[in-house]
Write a structure and sequence with these properties.
The structure holds two protein chains of two kinds.
Chain A (H helix, E strand, L loop, with lengths): L2 H16 L1 H5 L7 H7 L2 H15 L11 H15 L2 H18 L1
Helix pairs in contact in A: 5-6
Chain B lengths: L1 H31 L4 H10 L3 H12 L4 H11 L2 H9 L8 H9 L3 H13 L6 H26 L12 H13 L3 H17 L6 H20 L1
Helix pairs in contact in B: 1-2, 1-3, 1-7, 1-8, 2-8, 3-4, 5-7, 7-8, 7-9, 10-11
The chains are: A mainly alpha, B mainly alpha.
């Protein structure tokens, strides 16, 4: 098994996961339990990605990282403005400033 | 259609900038274990998912058996099943081939940006172009930065802290996704479990946390 073949299989497997509902299950109607659950996917997934990216910036728990206070500030901006651009600008600038001060 | 593409590219821009260091790291790492330049770059096109590419690289280097490598990559990418299910209702109007294209371009970032946009304004006629513009912009960025990493070689420090832009985009999208008490509970539980479950291997903390949040949100809704 060459490296490229292993990578190809990993890619095919990943494509199968990505296409599970979009392609493989296609137009079959989903059970009501599932469609009720789908409504909660965005809120749950977004929150589950964001929190460790802030608290475990280097892969390990690090609450002293400039990311933590910067994220708190950015969260307030995100909540008040609903603007992705402002959230990024405030978050990045705050991270940089706090990094300089520490 | 033009408007959807333009909106997609605008939405993708900060995320694309944020993944630049990540793509370079993936390229550098793949080249560093002795993969040929062609295979190292091909991996980004074939797998197109950073965390699982890093794991695949590490396991190839360690001489792991191929079922272990393929299985590990798939466990890390299990979250795509949730995204696939959540996006599917928005792409019912497309044929199978186009939906295969949608699936291939599916990433955390493309999912997050498009599902937020589609929830806010559903049933736009050319909505798939918004997604495809984001997906392709991120794909091109990923390929170019992989090549730079493979050819450039040296480790690229994230001097400007730009990688933080990606979680900031997710952070900005959390609030519009919280529309009532049930979704608020889902977000709160998922975030808390993700914090506690972060040490789990293979990125499983994300899947466990999301499932917990979804379950609590749905249970709360069923009671009210």
């Amino acid at each position: 098994m060459t490296e490229l073949m292993v990578i190809g299989l990993a890619g095919l497997g990943t494509l199968a996961l990505r296409g599970s509902f979009l392609v493989l299950l296609g137009d079959r109607t989903v059970p009501p339990v599932l469609s009720r659950a789908l409504r909660f996917v965005p809120a749950a997934v977004l929150s589950a990605i964001t929190v460790p990216a802030v608290t475990h910036a280097g892969g390990e728990l690090d609450l002293t990282s400039p990311r933590v206070p910067a994220a708190v500030l950015a969260a307030v901006v995100a909540w008040r403005t609903r603007s992705i651009a402002w959230t990024i600008v405030v978050g990045l600038v705050a991270q940089w400033l706090i990094g300089q001060l520490l | 259609m033009k408007r959807e593409i333009a909106a997609g590219l605008r939405a993708a821009l900060p995320v694309a900038v944020g993944i630049i260091p990540f793509g370079m790291i993936v390229g550098v790492t793949a080249a560093s274990i002795g993969l040929s330049d062609g295979v190292a770059v091909a991996m980004s096109a074939i797998i197109f998912a950073g965390a699982s590419q890093l794991a695949t690289t590490a396991l190839l280097d360690a001489g792991a058996a191929w079922p272990v490598i393929v299985g590990t990559a798939m466990v890390i990418n299990l979250r795509f099943v949730m995204y696939s299910a959540a996006l599917e209702p928005h792409f019912r109007h497309l044929g199978r081939l186009r939906r295969l294209g949608v699936a291939y371009l599916l990433t955390d970032q493309a999912f997050a940006l498009s599902v937020s946009s589609y929830t806010e304004q559903p049933d736009r006629q050319h909505r798939h172009w918004y997604y495809l513009a984001i997906g392709l912009a991120l794909w091109v960025t990923w390929m170019i930065t992989t090549v730079i990493g493979v050819v450039g070689g040296a480790q690229i420090p994230d001097a400007w802290g730009l990688t933080f832009a990606v979680p900031l985009v997710f952070l900005a999208l959390v609030f519009p996704a919280i529309t009532d008490r049930s979704t608020a509970r889902a977000a709160l539980v998922a975030g808390t479990v993700a914090f506690a479950a972060q040490p789990l291997p293979f990125n499983l903390g994300l899947v466990v946390a999301a499932v917990a949040g979804i379950a609590v949100g749905a249970a709360h809704e069923a009671r009210t």
